[in-house]
Structure formats: C-alpha cells, structure tokens
Predict the structure.
Amino acid sequence: MSDLNQTMAARYQNNFLKEIEEQAEMGEWVKMCMQCGLCSGSCPTNFQAGWDHPPQEIFMMIRAGKRDEVLKSNSMWMCTSCYNCYVRCPRKVPVTHVMHGIAEYAYRIGQSPKNQPTQHLSKTFWDNCTKTGRVNEVKLTQSLYFKDGIGAGIKKAMEMQAVALGLVKAKRLNPLEAIGIAHKCKDIKGIQAMLAKANELEAQRKAEKAKA
Amino acid sequence: MARKEYAFYPGCSSQKGASASNYLTSVESMCNTLDIKMTEIPDWNCCGASVSYAESGELPRTAMNARNFALAESNLPGQDIVATCAACWLGSRESKERLEHNSGLLADTQTALKEAGLQIKVIPEIRHMVEVLIEDLGYDELKKPVKKPLNGMKFAGYVGCQTNRPFGINGESFENPMYLDKLIETVGGEAVPYDQKVTCCGGALAFSEPEKAQAQIKDIIEAAYDGGAEMIVTPCPLCQANVEVYQGQINKKYGTKFDIPVLYYSQLMTLAYGGTAKQAALDGNVVRARKLEEFAGK
C-alpha cells in the first residue's frame, strides 16, 4: 500500500463515500445518483465485453464502501468522453467528469490497475502535449505501441503499417516527427514555468484537502 | 476588411502534416469564399484533450487553456475564439466555464499564467466553426456562393460526440441534431437518415482499446451503408480519422467490405463553392472519395 493510500484509508475508515466526495474531483456529485441506470444504458463501452462496472454500479459501490473494488476496477478507464451519460442524467450529475475524477484519485494514491492501456494513454498524452506545448502525434503513437516492450511494439507497429502508410501518403503523418522535427510552441520556457507553478499549486490544493 | 474576423484555434491535429491537415486546408478554402478572416492565435498550445485526466489535474489543464485565452485576448482583442476541432472546442469551453464560476481556480490560474508573462482580463467567447457558419452567417448565406451543387450524392452526416455533447450547437437536440444534415442539403447533397448519427467512435480509446473502439466504428459505418450513404461527413477530426483509417482492420476482423470515404463538411462546401480537389484537400483522404474527385474535375 502506498503511503497516501494508507493515510486515506485510515482517515476515512468505513466512509468511502466521504473520501470520494472530499478527495476526487467532482466526487461530491456521487450522492446525487438515484440509481436509474440511464448512464449505464447510454455508455457505448457498456455494450462491449471486458469492463467491470458501469457508472451506476460504481456510484452504488462507493456508497456501499467497496473501496478496493472501486479503486482497482478498470471501469473509469473505459470512459470514451462521449458525454452521453452527462447529458442524459436526470439528476444532472456530470457523470463523465465524476468518472474521470475517481480515475485520477485512484491513480494518484497508487490504487488504479497496473498497465491499464487508457491510463497509460492518459499519462502519455499529457506528457507529450506539455513537453513542447503541442502534440507530437508520431511520438505519441510510438510510445503507445512500445508500452509493453520492444517485441510487442514491433508487432503492433507491423499490424498498423497499412494504416500508417495510408496516412503518410495522404500527408497526414510526418515521419520526421519521430526525431523531433515537429510542430511546437515558441515559448516552451514560459509554458514550462506556467505548468510548474500550476502543478505546485495543484499539489498544494490536494495536500490541503488530504490534511483537512 | 473581411465580413467576419475570428481568433483561430486550429489545434494540434489541424497543422501541416498532422492527422487533420486536410481539415485545415478545406476550412481555409471555405473561409476564403465566405470572406471570413481567421487569424491564428499566436503561439497557441494544446487544450489537453479529454483523455489527459489522469495526469493533468484541474489547474494545469485549465492553465493550458487559459494561456490560449490570454494570447487571443491580448493579440486579437474583441474576437471570438474559433476552434475547428471538437476536443479543442470542448476543452476550451469547459475551462472557460470553470474559470467563470470558480474564483479560486481563476486566482490560481492567474498566478500560473504570470509565470508565462500573461494574464486573463476578459475570456473571449469560444465558438466552433460550425457555430460560426450557422449562427453568424446562416444557411441562406452559406447557400449563396454555391456554384456546383452536389446533386444526387448521398451522405451520412456523422455528428459524433464532442460537437454535440455536453454543450452542443444552440437549439439542437443531443439525440438527433440536424445542423450537419442541413449543411449537406445547403450544398445540394442528400442527407440520408441512419441510426448512428451521434454514436461515439471510441474517441481516444481507438488507441488504447482498439477492439472496443473498432466495434463501435463498425456499427457506425454499417448504419451509414444501410441508410444508403455513399460517403460519411463529420465536423470532428478524431471522428474523421477513427471512422476512416481503421476500415481495413475492421474488414479483416469482421469480414466486411467497408470502403467508404469520410469527409469534413468543409470539404463538401469547398467543392460546392467551385473549389478544386486540391483546395478541398481530397488528396488528404485515406479512403479516396473518387466520386468527388471526378466531380471536382468537371
């Protein structure tokens, strides 16, 4: 167990709902859920195999104190950000944002599933776009393919060869981006300074909440 | 002076050589005809997109968007920000909304911006390109420059998610928005009815969960064919790429024979306004739109 996780588990004891409300971004909305199931029925991923619990279930499990099951589940990471649940919820719960908030919290305290592909993408995307201020699409794709090592990466790259060649031919993929010849912001220094300050303040906010 | 002027936020995918570069080219051609002046926000940065939620945190994400607001406001005062990408539009609008409703977040954002020598005074309006077309010009104005109506061509207007939810286009329903169909009809095409108009293409999960995303994409394409469409049209760069570039993989997996071009509304409008295949960036389509290439050559 990570330190932060231990601290949180000890502090909230048997009140996981309160933990989510106070620690997860938008977590205060969970109690508004009336279990109608519209979100689950509206979720495009709900009709695919391989995810643990739709949002309605996650919300009930939070109330029921199923801490481990919720934080370790892959459910939140299945969100495509389609916002179907968000616009259909009769209680106006911003379900999409709540799911993102719970995912971020589980990740922050080291409880989210390991090697979860969308979690990897989420981190990789942010690191990629904040490095120069703009996304380097080639490097983003490469780091996704090679997340499970060189062998798996080459296999994946071979599978995707036809897709990549089609894009190169259409001038929508520039192989030079792989070596950093890519679009970037001019004021990278300013962006880095801004983000350093934002991260510092964000960490402060979260630490304060964790102490409160 | 141009009829309308906006602070243009093209976004990462709409850059030269990037995955939606054909969107950029066709938007430029379309705006040229419509006498809309789009001035790129100097040194704009990525919006963070929806998928960065695990790592970004609310404040850093908001700061990224706020930097664009500050740059737009100081360099192009009084102009609305116009995004062509659905995710840029959504990310910016979400940030604007949070900044306007959360004074603590605004204060912290200002502190962060100061490190980059910037400051927010007024947050400009954040518009999507189709809002500009529909609300600032209107269908009648959009019809006027049509020289070559796309008569007899059948399109499935694929609206997808993020230009539709959670904000959407004013006056449209989330379940069956009509603006894209109307745009198709404005340039003389036929918008076919089909039942996957607002289905999600899988978004970023096309990268991380390709099987799930491709199952959704398959449903969308199948419905478009069932509706009698020859081509699919969309306002979103990720919808466009996802629905277009995985057709080969889907065919292999499911034994389908998908080969349907996926275009941007701006490509249709450029062609209907008499533009060339190059001005409409038809060479940027991976699944070539042969019928439109022939049409453009006539």
About this structure: The radius of gyration of chain A is 20 Å. Chain A has a mean pLDDT of 93. Residues 188-211 of chain A form the longest helix (24 residues).
